[in-house]
Amino acid sequence: MTKVRKARTSILLSLCLSLTMMLSACGGSGDAGPTKEPAASGGDTKETTTTTQPADSGSGSPLELAMQGKYKGTKVTMFGPFVDADQKKFEDSIKDFEDKTGIDIQYEGSKEFEATINVRVDGGNAPDIADFPQPGLLASIAKTGKVIDLNKILDPEKLKKNYNQSWLDMGTMDGKDGKIMAGIWNRSNVKSLVWYPKKQFDEAGYKVPQTWDEMMALTEQIAKDGDPAWAIGIESGAATGWPGTDWIENIMLRTTTPENYDKWVKGELPFTSPEVKNAFEIMSKIWMNKDYVYGGTKSIVTTSFGDAPKPMFENPPKAWFNLTGNFITSFFPETAKVDQDYDWFYLPPIDEQYGKPVLVAGDIYAMFNDRPEVRAVMEFFTTGESIKNWVQSGGVIAPMNDASLDWYTSESDKRMAKLVQDATTLRFDGSDLMPGKVGAGSFWKGMTDYVSGTVNLDEALKQIQKGWDN
From CA 433, how far away is CA 429, in angstroms rounded? Predict the structure, then answer.
Protein backbone atom coordinates (compact mmCIF):
# COMPACT_ATOMS: atom_id res chain seq x y z
CA MET A 1 0.00 0.00 0.00
CA THR A 2 1.27 3.54 -0.86
CA LYS A 3 2.79 5.17 2.22
CA VAL A 4 1.11 8.41 3.39
CA ARG A 5 3.15 11.32 4.66
CA LYS A 6 2.16 14.71 6.02
CA ALA A 7 2.09 17.44 3.40
CA ARG A 8 4.59 20.23 3.67
CA THR A 9 3.37 23.78 3.51
CA SER A 10 5.55 24.45 0.47
CA ILE A 11 3.95 21.75 -1.69
CA LEU A 12 2.10 23.11 -4.68
CA LEU A 13 -1.66 22.76 -4.94
CA SER A 14 -1.35 20.44 -7.90
CA LEU A 15 0.78 18.02 -5.89
CA CYS A 16 -1.80 18.04 -3.09
CA LEU A 17 -4.47 17.09 -5.59
CA SER A 18 -2.30 14.28 -6.89
CA LEU A 19 -1.77 12.98 -3.37
CA THR A 20 -5.53 12.99 -2.80
CA MET A 21 -6.02 10.90 -5.91
CA MET A 22 -3.36 8.46 -4.72
CA LEU A 23 -5.10 8.05 -1.39
CA SER A 24 -8.39 7.30 -3.11
CA ALA A 25 -6.71 4.69 -5.28
CA CYS A 26 -5.47 2.92 -2.14
CA GLY A 27 -9.05 2.09 -1.20
CA GLY A 28 -9.11 4.30 1.91
CA SER A 29 -11.76 6.92 2.28
CA GLY A 30 -10.22 9.89 3.94
CA ASP A 31 -8.97 10.60 7.42
CA ALA A 32 -6.81 7.59 8.08
CA GLY A 33 -3.89 9.48 9.58
CA PRO A 34 -0.35 8.11 9.38
CA THR A 35 -0.62 4.53 8.19
CA LYS A 36 2.28 2.41 7.04
CA GLU A 37 2.46 -1.06 5.65
CA PRO A 38 2.43 -3.58 8.54
CA ALA A 39 5.53 -5.68 8.90
CA ALA A 40 5.43 -9.14 7.42
CA SER A 41 6.61 -12.14 9.37
CA GLY A 42 9.74 -11.29 11.27
CA GLY A 43 9.99 -7.86 9.64
CA ASP A 44 11.33 -4.66 11.08
CA THR A 45 9.19 -2.59 13.39
CA LYS A 46 6.92 -0.24 11.43
CA GLU A 47 4.31 2.23 12.50
CA THR A 48 0.74 0.95 12.74
CA THR A 49 -2.58 2.53 13.58
CA THR A 50 -5.86 1.50 15.12
CA THR A 51 -7.77 4.41 13.65
CA THR A 52 -11.16 3.24 12.43
CA GLN A 53 -11.96 4.22 8.87
CA PRO A 54 -15.19 3.80 6.94
CA ALA A 55 -15.49 0.74 4.74
CA ASP A 56 -14.53 0.92 1.11
CA SER A 57 -17.10 2.61 -1.06
CA GLY A 58 -19.24 0.27 -3.12
CA SER A 59 -22.17 -2.04 -2.77
CA GLY A 60 -21.85 -4.85 -0.26
CA SER A 61 -19.93 -5.76 2.87
CA PRO A 62 -16.12 -5.90 2.87
CA LEU A 63 -16.29 -9.68 2.39
CA GLU A 64 -18.66 -9.35 -0.56
CA LEU A 65 -16.43 -6.70 -2.12
CA ALA A 66 -13.42 -8.95 -1.57
CA MET A 67 -15.17 -11.76 -3.41
CA GLN A 68 -15.65 -9.34 -6.30
CA GLY A 69 -11.88 -8.88 -6.45
CA LYS A 70 -11.88 -5.33 -5.05
CA TYR A 71 -8.86 -6.00 -2.83
CA LYS A 72 -6.84 -8.21 -5.15
CA GLY A 73 -3.11 -7.82 -4.58
CA THR A 74 -3.39 -6.62 -0.98
CA LYS A 75 -1.74 -8.25 2.03
CA VAL A 76 -3.04 -8.93 5.54
CA THR A 77 -0.59 -9.96 8.25
CA MET A 78 -1.59 -12.40 10.97
CA PHE A 79 0.25 -13.65 14.06
CA GLY A 80 -0.76 -16.60 16.22
CA PRO A 81 0.18 -19.80 18.04
CA PHE A 82 -0.44 -22.25 15.18
CA VAL A 83 2.78 -24.04 14.22
CA ASP A 84 3.71 -27.29 12.50
CA ALA A 85 0.64 -29.43 11.71
CA ASP A 86 -1.81 -26.84 13.05
CA GLN A 87 -0.23 -24.12 10.92
CA LYS A 88 -0.64 -26.27 7.81
CA LYS A 89 -4.29 -26.94 8.65
CA PHE A 90 -4.91 -23.25 9.17
CA GLU A 91 -3.21 -22.28 5.93
CA ASP A 92 -5.14 -24.96 4.04
CA SER A 93 -8.38 -23.57 5.46
CA ILE A 94 -7.74 -20.05 4.08
CA LYS A 95 -6.25 -21.00 0.70
CA ASP A 96 -9.55 -21.01 -1.20
CA PHE A 97 -10.39 -17.55 0.17
CA GLU A 98 -6.99 -16.23 -0.89
CA ASP A 99 -7.39 -17.71 -4.37
CA LYS A 100 -10.86 -16.23 -4.85
CA THR A 101 -10.11 -12.76 -3.47
CA GLY A 102 -6.47 -12.23 -4.33
CA ILE A 103 -5.81 -11.21 -0.72
CA ASP A 104 -2.58 -12.66 0.66
CA ILE A 105 -2.97 -13.59 4.34
CA GLN A 106 0.60 -13.70 5.59
CA TYR A 107 0.46 -15.90 8.66
CA GLU A 108 3.30 -16.11 11.18
CA GLY A 109 3.12 -18.83 13.83
CA SER A 110 5.11 -18.88 17.05
CA LYS A 111 5.34 -21.13 20.08
CA GLU A 112 6.21 -17.96 21.99
CA PHE A 113 3.07 -16.12 20.90
CA GLU A 114 1.95 -15.17 24.40
CA ALA A 115 5.33 -13.68 25.28
CA THR A 116 5.73 -11.94 21.93
CA ILE A 117 2.37 -10.33 21.16
CA ASN A 118 2.60 -7.75 23.95
CA VAL A 119 6.06 -6.71 22.79
CA ARG A 120 4.85 -6.29 19.21
CA VAL A 121 1.76 -4.32 20.15
CA ASP A 122 3.66 -2.06 22.56
CA GLY A 123 6.37 -1.54 19.96
CA GLY A 124 3.96 -0.40 17.26
CA ASN A 125 4.50 -3.60 15.28
CA ALA A 126 1.12 -5.23 15.82
CA PRO A 127 -0.08 -7.61 13.11
CA ASP A 128 -3.28 -6.75 11.29
CA ILE A 129 -4.93 -9.72 13.02
CA ALA A 130 -3.81 -11.78 16.01
CA ASP A 131 -5.10 -15.16 17.17
CA PHE A 132 -5.36 -15.39 20.96
CA PRO A 133 -5.72 -18.91 22.41
CA GLN A 134 -6.30 -17.32 25.83
CA PRO A 135 -8.87 -14.51 25.88
CA GLY A 136 -7.47 -13.27 29.18
CA LEU A 137 -4.38 -12.06 27.34
CA LEU A 138 -6.52 -10.26 24.77
CA ALA A 139 -8.55 -8.67 27.57
CA SER A 140 -5.42 -7.13 29.08
CA ILE A 141 -4.40 -5.66 25.71
CA ALA A 142 -7.93 -4.44 24.95
CA LYS A 143 -7.77 -2.14 27.97
CA THR A 144 -4.91 -0.21 26.34
CA GLY A 145 -7.17 0.96 23.52
CA LYS A 146 -5.01 -0.69 20.86
CA VAL A 147 -7.60 -3.29 19.86
CA ILE A 148 -10.18 -2.23 17.29
CA ASP A 149 -13.81 -2.44 18.40
CA LEU A 150 -15.43 -4.94 16.03
CA ASN A 151 -18.85 -3.50 16.80
CA LYS A 152 -17.79 -0.73 14.41
CA ILE A 153 -16.49 -3.18 11.81
CA LEU A 154 -18.83 -6.17 11.65
CA ASP A 155 -22.60 -6.36 11.22
CA PRO A 156 -23.99 -7.11 14.71
CA GLU A 157 -27.12 -8.75 13.31
CA LYS A 158 -25.06 -11.19 11.26
CA LEU A 159 -22.99 -12.00 14.35
CA LYS A 160 -26.10 -12.67 16.44
CA LYS A 161 -27.43 -14.95 13.74
CA ASN A 162 -24.24 -16.93 13.35
CA TYR A 163 -23.08 -17.29 16.96
CA ASN A 164 -24.60 -18.48 20.20
CA GLN A 165 -24.98 -15.30 22.30
CA SER A 166 -22.49 -16.69 24.80
CA TRP A 167 -19.71 -16.48 22.20
CA LEU A 168 -20.49 -12.81 21.66
CA ASP A 169 -20.59 -12.21 25.41
CA MET A 170 -17.17 -13.81 25.78
CA GLY A 171 -15.80 -11.62 22.98
CA THR A 172 -17.02 -8.43 24.68
CA MET A 173 -14.32 -6.95 26.90
CA ASP A 174 -13.32 -3.74 28.65
CA GLY A 175 -11.73 -1.26 26.27
CA LYS A 176 -10.00 1.99 27.12
CA ASP A 177 -13.28 3.91 27.12
CA GLY A 178 -15.90 1.24 27.78
CA LYS A 179 -17.01 -2.16 26.50
CA ILE A 180 -15.87 -3.26 23.05
CA MET A 181 -16.19 -6.32 20.85
CA ALA A 182 -12.54 -7.27 21.17
CA GLY A 183 -12.57 -10.37 19.02
CA ILE A 184 -14.48 -13.07 17.19
CA TRP A 185 -14.23 -16.82 17.72
CA ASN A 186 -13.00 -19.10 14.96
CA ARG A 187 -12.02 -22.45 16.48
CA SER A 188 -13.23 -24.19 19.61
CA ASN A 189 -12.50 -27.19 21.79
CA VAL A 190 -15.10 -28.76 24.06
CA LYS A 191 -14.31 -29.58 27.69
CA SER A 192 -17.59 -31.01 29.00
CA LEU A 193 -17.06 -34.50 27.63
CA VAL A 194 -16.85 -37.83 29.43
CA TRP A 195 -15.04 -40.40 27.29
CA TYR A 196 -15.79 -44.10 27.62
CA PRO A 197 -15.01 -47.43 25.88
CA LYS A 198 -18.18 -47.68 23.79
CA LYS A 199 -18.00 -51.29 22.63
CA GLN A 200 -17.40 -52.78 26.09
CA PHE A 201 -19.78 -50.27 27.68
CA ASP A 202 -22.62 -51.43 25.44
CA GLU A 203 -21.71 -55.09 25.94
CA ALA A 204 -21.83 -54.59 29.71
CA GLY A 205 -25.38 -53.29 29.40
CA TYR A 206 -24.59 -49.88 30.84
CA LYS A 207 -26.63 -46.87 29.76
CA VAL A 208 -25.38 -43.34 29.16
CA PRO A 209 -26.50 -41.20 32.13
CA GLN A 210 -28.68 -38.16 31.43
CA THR A 211 -28.48 -36.59 34.90
CA TRP A 212 -25.77 -36.21 37.53
CA ASP A 213 -27.66 -38.53 39.87
CA GLU A 214 -27.80 -41.17 37.14
CA MET A 215 -24.06 -40.78 36.57
CA MET A 216 -23.33 -41.22 40.28
CA ALA A 217 -25.61 -44.26 40.42
CA LEU A 218 -23.77 -45.78 37.45
CA THR A 219 -20.44 -44.98 39.11
CA GLU A 220 -21.60 -46.93 42.17
CA GLN A 221 -22.91 -49.80 40.02
CA ILE A 222 -19.58 -50.13 38.20
CA ALA A 223 -17.81 -50.20 41.60
CA LYS A 224 -20.12 -53.02 42.72
CA ASP A 225 -19.30 -54.84 39.50
CA GLY A 226 -15.65 -54.77 40.54
CA ASP A 227 -14.15 -51.82 38.67
CA PRO A 228 -13.37 -48.19 39.51
CA ALA A 229 -15.44 -46.10 37.10
CA TRP A 230 -13.12 -43.12 36.74
CA ALA A 231 -9.68 -42.78 35.15
CA ILE A 232 -8.23 -39.50 36.47
CA GLY A 233 -4.76 -38.00 36.20
CA ILE A 234 -3.61 -34.43 36.82
CA GLU A 235 0.17 -34.84 36.50
CA SER A 236 1.58 -32.55 33.81
CA GLY A 237 5.10 -31.59 34.84
CA ALA A 238 5.28 -27.94 35.85
CA ALA A 239 1.58 -27.63 34.97
CA THR A 240 0.46 -30.43 37.32
CA GLY A 241 -3.06 -29.76 38.56
CA TRP A 242 -4.60 -28.14 35.49
CA PRO A 243 -6.90 -31.07 34.54
CA GLY A 244 -8.56 -30.71 37.91
CA THR A 245 -9.52 -27.12 37.17
CA ASP A 246 -11.71 -28.35 34.31
CA TRP A 247 -13.72 -30.40 36.79
CA ILE A 248 -14.32 -27.43 39.07
CA GLU A 249 -15.23 -25.15 36.15
CA ASN A 250 -17.73 -27.66 34.79
CA ILE A 251 -19.33 -28.16 38.19
CA MET A 252 -19.50 -24.40 38.82
CA LEU A 253 -21.48 -23.99 35.59
CA ARG A 254 -23.89 -26.69 36.76
CA THR A 255 -24.44 -25.41 40.30
CA THR A 256 -24.54 -21.62 40.11
CA THR A 257 -25.38 -18.83 37.69
CA PRO A 258 -23.25 -17.85 34.69
CA GLU A 259 -22.95 -14.45 36.36
CA ASN A 260 -21.39 -16.05 39.44
CA TYR A 261 -19.04 -18.00 37.21
CA ASP A 262 -17.95 -14.74 35.60
CA LYS A 263 -17.45 -13.11 39.00
CA TRP A 264 -15.40 -16.09 40.14
CA VAL A 265 -13.17 -15.84 37.08
CA LYS A 266 -12.66 -12.11 37.72
CA GLY A 267 -11.81 -12.66 41.39
CA GLU A 268 -15.03 -11.07 42.64
CA LEU A 269 -16.35 -14.40 43.99
CA PRO A 270 -13.59 -15.86 46.18
CA PHE A 271 -12.53 -19.49 46.22
CA THR A 272 -13.56 -19.56 49.88
CA SER A 273 -17.17 -18.72 48.96
CA PRO A 274 -19.93 -21.33 49.53
CA GLU A 275 -20.46 -21.63 45.75
CA VAL A 276 -16.88 -22.62 45.01
CA LYS A 277 -16.55 -24.86 48.05
CA ASN A 278 -19.71 -26.67 46.99
CA ALA A 279 -18.16 -27.41 43.58
CA PHE A 280 -15.09 -28.92 45.26
CA GLU A 281 -17.27 -31.01 47.55
CA ILE A 282 -19.24 -32.41 44.63
CA MET A 283 -16.02 -33.30 42.83
CA SER A 284 -14.67 -34.87 46.02
CA LYS A 285 -17.52 -37.39 46.14
CA ILE A 286 -15.82 -39.00 43.16
CA TRP A 287 -12.15 -38.12 43.61
CA MET A 288 -11.93 -38.96 47.30
CA ASN A 289 -13.66 -42.34 47.00
CA LYS A 290 -10.95 -44.97 46.47
CA ASP A 291 -13.54 -47.33 44.96
CA TYR A 292 -14.41 -44.86 42.23
CA VAL A 293 -10.93 -43.92 40.96
CA TYR A 294 -8.51 -46.20 39.15
CA GLY A 295 -5.44 -46.56 41.37
CA GLY A 296 -7.15 -44.76 44.26
CA THR A 297 -7.19 -41.10 45.18
CA LYS A 298 -3.44 -40.76 45.71
CA SER A 299 -2.74 -41.94 42.13
CA ILE A 300 -4.54 -38.89 40.66
CA VAL A 301 -1.55 -36.65 41.38
CA THR A 302 1.06 -39.08 40.02
CA THR A 303 -0.81 -40.14 36.87
CA SER A 304 -0.16 -38.12 33.72
CA PHE A 305 -3.37 -36.71 32.22
CA GLY A 306 -2.39 -38.27 28.87
CA ASP A 307 -1.87 -41.71 30.41
CA ALA A 308 -5.03 -41.60 32.52
CA PRO A 309 -7.39 -42.97 29.81
CA LYS A 310 -5.23 -46.02 29.06
CA PRO A 311 -7.07 -48.41 31.42
CA MET A 312 -10.26 -47.80 29.41
CA PHE A 313 -8.67 -49.51 26.40
CA GLU A 314 -7.61 -52.72 28.10
CA ASN A 315 -9.66 -55.84 27.48
CA PRO A 316 -11.67 -55.94 29.61
CA PRO A 317 -11.52 -52.26 30.66
CA LYS A 318 -10.09 -51.51 34.09
CA ALA A 319 -11.76 -48.09 34.18
CA TRP A 320 -14.68 -46.62 32.26
CA PHE A 321 -14.83 -42.82 32.33
CA ASN A 322 -12.42 -39.95 31.66
CA LEU A 323 -13.46 -36.29 31.78
CA THR A 324 -11.23 -34.32 29.40
CA GLY A 325 -11.54 -32.05 26.36
CA ASN A 326 -11.77 -33.41 22.83
CA PHE A 327 -8.00 -33.04 22.34
CA ILE A 328 -7.48 -36.12 24.56
CA THR A 329 -8.19 -38.46 21.64
CA SER A 330 -4.65 -37.83 20.40
CA PHE A 331 -3.52 -39.82 23.47
CA PHE A 332 -5.80 -42.77 22.68
CA PRO A 333 -4.35 -45.91 21.06
CA GLU A 334 -3.87 -45.43 17.32
CA THR A 335 -5.86 -48.59 16.66
CA ALA A 336 -8.90 -47.34 18.60
CA LYS A 337 -11.73 -46.18 16.33
CA VAL A 338 -14.11 -43.37 17.24
CA ASP A 339 -17.82 -44.28 17.36
CA GLN A 340 -16.82 -47.93 17.65
CA ASP A 341 -14.17 -48.46 20.30
CA TYR A 342 -14.77 -45.19 22.13
CA ASP A 343 -17.30 -42.40 22.38
CA TRP A 344 -18.27 -39.59 24.74
CA PHE A 345 -21.30 -38.38 26.63
CA TYR A 346 -22.08 -34.89 27.86
CA LEU A 347 -21.20 -34.34 31.52
CA PRO A 348 -24.76 -34.24 32.87
CA PRO A 349 -26.48 -31.26 34.52
CA ILE A 350 -26.61 -31.07 38.30
CA ASP A 351 -29.19 -28.36 38.95
CA GLU A 352 -31.74 -28.31 36.13
CA GLN A 353 -32.32 -24.55 36.46
CA TYR A 354 -28.90 -23.97 34.86
CA GLY A 355 -29.79 -25.96 31.75
CA LYS A 356 -27.03 -27.61 29.72
CA PRO A 357 -23.90 -25.44 30.03
CA VAL A 358 -20.78 -26.28 28.05
CA LEU A 359 -17.19 -25.46 28.99
CA VAL A 360 -15.05 -24.53 26.01
CA ALA A 361 -11.62 -23.34 24.98
CA GLY A 362 -10.68 -21.92 21.62
CA ASP A 363 -9.16 -19.18 19.51
CA ILE A 364 -10.36 -15.58 19.40
CA TYR A 365 -9.18 -13.29 16.59
CA ALA A 366 -8.56 -9.59 17.26
CA MET A 367 -7.95 -6.75 14.78
CA PHE A 368 -5.24 -4.13 15.24
CA ASN A 369 -5.06 -2.30 11.90
CA ASP A 370 -8.07 -1.05 9.98
CA ARG A 371 -8.04 -1.31 6.21
CA PRO A 372 -10.79 -2.60 3.91
CA GLU A 373 -8.98 -5.84 3.15
CA VAL A 374 -8.45 -6.49 6.87
CA ARG A 375 -12.16 -5.96 7.45
CA ALA A 376 -12.88 -8.47 4.70
CA VAL A 377 -10.63 -11.09 6.29
CA MET A 378 -12.18 -10.54 9.72
CA GLU A 379 -15.66 -10.93 8.24
CA PHE A 380 -14.52 -14.11 6.52
CA PHE A 381 -13.33 -15.49 9.86
CA THR A 382 -16.87 -15.17 11.26
CA THR A 383 -18.13 -17.72 8.70
CA GLY A 384 -18.08 -21.46 8.96
CA GLU A 385 -16.48 -21.57 5.52
CA SER A 386 -13.28 -20.16 7.06
CA ILE A 387 -12.72 -23.32 9.06
CA LYS A 388 -14.43 -25.90 6.83
CA ASN A 389 -11.25 -27.66 5.70
CA TRP A 390 -9.97 -27.88 9.27
CA VAL A 391 -13.29 -29.31 10.46
CA GLN A 392 -13.17 -31.90 7.71
CA SER A 393 -9.66 -32.92 8.72
CA GLY A 394 -10.86 -33.50 12.29
CA GLY A 395 -9.86 -32.25 15.72
CA VAL A 396 -11.72 -28.94 15.92
CA ILE A 397 -15.27 -27.72 16.36
CA ALA A 398 -16.58 -24.65 14.54
CA PRO A 399 -18.39 -22.18 16.84
CA MET A 400 -20.42 -20.71 13.96
CA ASN A 401 -24.01 -21.75 13.31
CA ASP A 402 -23.53 -21.84 9.54
CA ALA A 403 -20.92 -24.60 9.82
CA SER A 404 -22.70 -27.65 8.41
CA LEU A 405 -22.79 -30.76 10.54
CA ASP A 406 -22.16 -32.69 7.32
CA TRP A 407 -18.59 -31.38 7.33
CA TYR A 408 -17.67 -33.51 10.34
CA THR A 409 -16.23 -36.88 9.50
CA SER A 410 -17.44 -38.76 12.59
CA GLU A 411 -20.72 -38.97 14.45
CA SER A 412 -18.76 -38.06 17.57
CA ASP A 413 -17.69 -34.72 16.12
CA LYS A 414 -21.16 -34.02 14.70
CA ARG A 415 -22.71 -34.53 18.12
CA MET A 416 -20.02 -32.33 19.66
CA ALA A 417 -20.74 -29.51 17.21
CA LYS A 418 -24.46 -29.83 17.88
CA LEU A 419 -23.80 -29.72 21.62
CA VAL A 420 -21.96 -26.41 21.21
CA GLN A 421 -24.68 -24.95 18.98
CA ASP A 422 -27.48 -25.94 21.38
CA ALA A 423 -25.77 -25.12 24.67
CA THR A 424 -27.81 -23.12 27.17
CA THR A 425 -24.63 -21.37 28.28
CA LEU A 426 -21.08 -21.40 26.95
CA ARG A 427 -18.19 -20.31 29.11
CA PHE A 428 -14.46 -20.30 28.49
CA ASP A 429 -12.03 -22.32 30.59
CA GLY A 430 -11.94 -20.30 33.82
CA SER A 431 -8.33 -20.91 34.81
CA ASP A 432 -7.20 -19.62 31.40
CA LEU A 433 -9.10 -16.40 32.06
CA MET A 434 -7.68 -15.83 35.52
CA PRO A 435 -4.36 -14.05 36.06
CA GLY A 436 -1.45 -16.43 35.65
CA LYS A 437 -0.54 -16.32 39.34
CA VAL A 438 -3.99 -17.77 40.07
CA GLY A 439 -5.15 -19.78 37.03
CA ALA A 440 -1.74 -21.28 36.31
CA GLY A 441 -0.41 -20.86 39.83
CA SER A 442 -2.28 -21.16 43.10
CA PHE A 443 -5.27 -22.93 41.47
CA TRP A 444 -3.09 -25.73 40.08
CA LYS A 445 -1.07 -26.05 43.27
CA GLY A 446 -4.10 -25.93 45.56
CA MET A 447 -5.82 -28.68 43.60
CA THR A 448 -2.70 -30.83 43.79
CA ASP A 449 -2.11 -30.25 47.50
CA TYR A 450 -5.74 -31.03 48.31
CA VAL A 451 -5.88 -34.29 46.36
CA SER A 452 -2.49 -35.45 47.68
CA GLY A 453 -3.71 -34.90 51.23
CA THR A 454 -1.16 -32.20 52.06
CA VAL A 455 -3.96 -29.84 53.09
CA ASN A 456 -7.67 -30.18 53.77
CA LEU A 457 -10.31 -28.51 51.59
CA ASP A 458 -10.67 -25.32 53.61
CA GLU A 459 -6.90 -24.86 53.69
CA ALA A 460 -6.65 -25.52 49.96
CA LEU A 461 -9.31 -22.94 49.13
CA LYS A 462 -7.57 -20.32 51.30
CA GLN A 463 -4.26 -21.18 49.64
CA ILE A 464 -5.74 -20.77 46.14
CA GLN A 465 -7.41 -17.47 47.09
CA LYS A 466 -4.07 -16.06 48.20
CA GLY A 467 -3.08 -16.07 44.55
CA TRP A 468 -5.51 -13.18 44.08
CA ASP A 469 -4.24 -11.38 47.16
CA ASN A 470 -0.56 -11.53 46.21
Answer: 7
